[in-house]
Amino acid sequence: MANRTDPAAKSIRGTNPQNLIEKIVRSKIYQNTYWKEQCFGLTAETLVDKAMELDHIGGTYGGNRKPTSFMCLVMKMLQIQPEKDIVVEFIKNDDYKYVRVLGAFYLRLTGIDSDIYRYLEPLYNDYRKVRRKSPDGNFILAHVDEVIDELLTTDYSCDIALPRIKKRWTLESLGALDARKSVLEDDFEEEEEKDENEQDGLEEEVAHEKQDYYRGRSPARDRERDYRRDSQRHRDRDYDRDRDYDRERGRGRERDRDRDRDRDRDRDHYRLREEKEYGYERDRDREREGRERDRRDRERGRRRSRSRSRSRSRDRKRRARSSMSPRMRGAEDGKPPEESKKKKGKKEKDDGTDHLDPEIAEANRIRASLGLKPLKL
After folding, report:
1. What is the pLDDT of residues 294-324, one digit of tens each?
2. How many CB atoms lie under 10 A from the CB of residue 25?
3. How far apart are CA 348 and CA 365, in angstroms?
4. Alpha-carbon distance 277 to 205, whole Å?
5. From CA 15, how far away is CA 30, in angstroms rounded?
6. Measured between alpha carbons, how far is 51 from 24 in angstroms, rounded to an integer?
7. How far apart are CA 85 and CA 52, in angstroms?
8. Phi/psi of residue 51, each to 5°?
9. What sign does the CA torsion over 344, 346, 348, 350 have?
């Protein structure tokens, strides 16, 4: 019941007045706490008190797009549909600027084209500051005339799509609206009249001066004036001739100075180029000599490293050979040591198998097979 339109309200532009606000914004207004607590049961008379408490304007703000109190009151006016005289009084109220903006916004939504231009254009002269809530929740500074210009020239304001209206020149051509009269028009007319009076006064002074001039002319004065004019002309001619001579002489000096400058520049250029070429060849020879010196040093270093490695290997072999036993040294040389042969021969003779006595030799052979010591007889 609280969200229904007044049964006595008339349809605007062929639809319910509340439908002038989009459904999403309308549903958020219905869920807002300000709408439920402050706008419930308001009438056209009590609505004025709530409008006087406004301290900012705006549409929706924040992440969940909360509606402002200004938008809730616009919705309440669409719901109860106050009379046109009350809306006009809202617009003409000079004491409360937010009440004026509220009435202008409602008239822009519901009024006809001629009434919108007739009642809102005088508000262009209201330069008072108003606070406007931006979509991010911060307040920005605006003026009443800026808000009115937005209502008259754009199709979207405070998150609400405004109904389209005809252009002013169209209404003027149809005769539905008079030509706009600026408030400064009287001041412009006064300025124009003042300029015309000043122009007339100047023309009269010039006429009087001419009349006095022609009245006071005489032949002697004319001859004196001609003499002065001729002397001035000769003086000017002499001055021009001297000035031309000085200019030509100055040009000749500048030409000589430029020629000397060009000659010095060419000489410096050739000298720098020769020095550069000579220096380039000298640097190239030095670089070649440096490469040759580096190559000789590398070759000398390689030879030294090879000879050092050979001597080191010989010393290592000599130390290893000196640390070997004679038998190992003989084996390394490829010559079997005689002592080892002798020892082997002794071992072969000491096993007793070659004893003179056949029985003892047989017994020693058996003992040798059993791992026992031979008989020593």
Report:
1. 888 888 888 888 777 777 777 777 777 666 6
2. 19
3. 12
4. 84
5. 19
6. 24
7. 18
8. -65, -35
9. negative
Please report how many Cα atoms fall inside a 13 Å half-sphere around the Cα of residue 41, on the Cβ side. Answer: 2
Backbone angles phi, psi at 60, to 5 degrees: -115, 160
State in Å, rounded, how far the first CA of the chain is from the last one: 148
3-state secondary structure the chain: CCCCCCCCCCCECCECHHHHCCHHHHHHHHHCHHHHHHCCCCCCCCHHHHHHCCCCEECEECCCCEECHHHHHHHHHHHHCCCHHHHHHHHHCCCCHHHHHHHHHHHHHHCCHHHHHHHHHHHHHCCCEEEEECCCCCEEEEEHHHHHHHHHHCCEECCEECCCCCCHHHHHHHCCCCCCCCCCHHHHHHHHHHHHHHHHHHHHHHHHHHHHHHHCCCHHHHHHHHHHHHHHHHHHHHHHHHHHHHHHHHHHHHHHHHHHHHHHHHHHHHHHHHHHHHHHHHHHHHHHHHHHHHHHHHHHHHHHHHHHHHHHHHHHHHHHHHCCCHHHHHHHHCCCCHHHHHHHHHHHHHCCCCCCCHHHHHHHHHHHHHCCCCCCC
Q: What is the pLDDT of residues 39-48, one digit of tens each?
A: 888 888 899 9
**Residue reference for tokens 């609400």:** 160
Q: Which residues of 214-243 are buried (b: 16+ CB within 10 A; e: fewer)?
A: eeeeeeeeeeeeeeeeeeeeeeeeeeeeee
Whole-number Å distance between alpha carbons of 139 and 100: 19
67 pairs with which residues across the strands?
A: 60
Q: Is 103 or 223 the better-scoring residue by pLDDT?
A: 103
**What's the pLDDT band for 345 if we cut at 50, 70, 90?**
very low
Q: Output the six-digit token pair for 340.
A: 């080892």
Whether residue 69 contacts residue 34, with contact meaning beta carbons closer than 8 Å, is answered with yes
Q: Which amino acid is at 186?
A: D
